[in-house]
Amino acid sequence: MFDIKDILEPETLEKALELLAQNAELKIIAGGTDVLIKLHHRRIKEVELLSLRKIKGLDKISMLEDGSIEIGAMASFAQIFRDSIVEKHIKVLAEGAVSMGGPQVRNMATIGGNVCNGAVSADSAPSLFCLNAKVRLKNKYGERIIPIQDFYKGPGKVDIKSDEILISLIIEKESYENTIGHYIKFSNRKAMDIAMVSVCVVSSIENGKFNDLRIALGVAAPTPIRCSEAENYAKGLEITEENIDKIAEFAVKSSKSRNSWRASKDFREHLIKELTKRGIKETIK
């Protein structure tokens, strides 16, 4: 059924990196929910797969000594949704995780695979953008850590080299402490559909004003984006209905919506404005 030439299943990260260094054509498979669809539609053929399933520890979610939260790339969306650290400190990521497909998909799909797929509709992306997440990449010779906003390069394109594996995502304490977040996904159907538009809002409020406000959009540009113009305008702004409307208008300006078979440009912009307002209000309740 699937045009698979070979599948390798190393049991250690070191072995996996060695195999990648030897063969740049290997296709990494994590949960497999994206790769198998591409194989089914014959978008990739005669592929050699490198499975990360047997490598222990890549699904770990932990609190580091400096208060940063590290989420292993092989953590499934079901695991993220149920994790106590996520629930306590970065619940907005759990909101994105539970909106991902159905239970069967959430049990298999991994956050690393979701990010590396580079899809603008990735349910984890807006929350990770709002949390200023960093991606940790490793090859045989060392590792590098880069902001997730720099990781996305275009539709389906991410900054990962052929010999690298995404090990984990890191969210620093200063990016989640004293904040409240909310994720909203709008789709044609209520279940198991990709987002038409998704909005994440993370806010920090002090004395009736926005101390910090972060807004990220999915399916509003070629990649997930942060609405920097809206965020800069909101900083120190008094919380009023009029100001929330203005912030939402700035969020629309940051978007690069287009017409598609799923929705018109005008409808997407309407959704961005209304969902941004709703997300802001949810965080200030």
CATH domain class name of the largest domain = Alpha Beta
Helix-strand sequence: EHEHEEEHHHHHHEEHEEEHEEEEHHH
Characterize the main sheet.
5 strands, antiparallel
Question: In terms of per-residue confidence, which ranges show pLDDT below 50 for 5 or more consecutive residues?
Answer: none
Indicate the CATH topology of the largest domain: Uridine Diphospho-n-acetylenolpyruvylglucosamine Reductase, domain 3
Domains, number:
3
Amount of beta strand: 25-35%
The rounded Rg comes to 19 Å
* Physical arrangement of strands within the biggest beta sheet: 4-5-10-6-7
Number of E strands? 14
Indicate the CATH architecture of the largest domain: 2-Layer Sandwich
Describe this structure in words.
The chain is of the alpha+beta class and about 280 residues long. The chain folds into three domains: about 5-50, Uridine Diphospho-n-acetylenolpyruvylglucosamine Reductase, domain 2; about 60-175, Uridine Diphospho-n-acetylenolpyruvylglucosamine Reductase, domain 3, CATH 3.30.465.10; about 180-285, CO dehydrogenase flavoprotein, C-terminal domain (Enolase-like, domain 1, 2-Layer Sandwich), CATH 3.30.390.50. The chain is built from 13 helices and 14 strands. The chain has a five-stranded antiparallel beta sheet. A four-stranded antiparallel beta sheet has the order 11-12-13-14. Strand 4 (about 60-65) and strand 5 form a beta hairpin. The termini are far apart. The relative contact order is 0.11.
